[in-house]
TrEMBL record:
Source organism of this protein record: Pistacia atlantica
Protein name: Uncharacterized protein
Amino acid sequence: MCAYMAPSLDTRQDMAEVVVSELALRPCIDLSVKRIMLYQQGCYAGGTVLRIAKDLAENTKGAPVLILCSETTILAAIIVGSNPMLGVEKPIVELVSTTETLVPNSAGAICETIREHALIMHIGKEAPDLIGNHTENRLIEVFHPLGISDWNSVFWAAHPGGRAILDQVEA
């Protein structure tokens, strides 16, 4: 899929270019609309954009937040809001808390670059241990203030990044 001039990658990029441009430049959009562009985030963008959308929705009364994701392998959209209109809107998921963590001594453990010929991803051999060794403490920090001690009773996710990372998190 990431081969140079591969039809799948080129087609997705062309499609994303058109859709994103049409959405961003549509004249009927109110000029008060706030736009945030995130580039070169890879899979990290998913959690980041949900955190930003939650903050925007909660701090801008009555403002729904449209998330449009245009990545090399996906084109998706979701609407995030706060204080839904009962009987009209039917929320599927509630974002209770969002946060991010930088794992100490992890520089270079996971790297991604995009070049003309491909998207290059490198997950170092130290990544599974770094993630696995910091997951439990992070879960305690996030869920304890919410009164949650059974992490399997709520939805949370660790980016898989490969079987070795999932095995470390599961252990």
